[in-house]
Specification:
The protein is of the alpha/beta class and about 160 residues long. The protein contains six helices and five strands. The longest helix is centred in the last third of the chain and has 19 residues. The chain starts with a helix and ends with a helix.
Length: about 160
């Protein structure tokens, strides 16, 4: 039987002697929930922040208010800052940042419902993925969490 992504991720993090922290907006803690469902995750999971309000992104993760004002909370720049902020604040080797529009409202033509940015910050670089998911709010949150875990798995050497 194939291990679920959370278990595989844990095994990879342990094998790499690496740690992880998360900064979640649109996923509302779902990524941290999934990671901590694995027994022994305390050896590699440092913690997480659900920074839903822009002021929380700034105060807790160090996202400059000017970046939020210039690009909007749902943007590549903010996702990058969130992942890097989580990584730095928790002293982890890897950080995940998610920001997006889960709906059903809040979307625009430029930034529709389902638009999500997922950033993976590692020790040498940060990669941001722009994804457009379809579905209701719960589905978009679940798809975002799943994608974030897969993107992190791909990033771990």
């Amino acid at each position: 039987m194939t291990a679920i992504i959370e278990e595989r991720l844990g095994q990879r993090l342990v094998a790499a002697s690496a740690t992880l922290a998360v900064a979640e907006s649109c996923t509302g803690g779902l990524i941290a929930h999934r990671i901590t469902n694995v027994a022994g995750s305390s050896t590699y999971f440092m913690g997480g922040v659900v920074a839903y309000a822009d002021s929380a992104k700034t105060a807790l993760l160090g996202v400059p208010a000017a970046i939020i004002e210039e690009h909007g909370a749902v943007s590549e720049s903010v996702a990058r800052q969130m992942a890097e902020g989580a990584r730095g604040r928790f002293g982890a080797q890897y950080g995940i940042g998610t920001t997006g529009i889960a709906g059903p409202g809040g979307g625009t033509k430029e930034k529709p419902v389902g638009l999500v940015y997922i950033a993976i910050a590692g020790t040498s670089d940060t990669v941001v993925h722009r994804v457009l998911f379809e579905g209701n709010r719960s589905q978009i949150k679940a798809l975002t969490a799943e994608a974030a875990l897969h993107f992190l798995e791909e990033s771990i050497g």
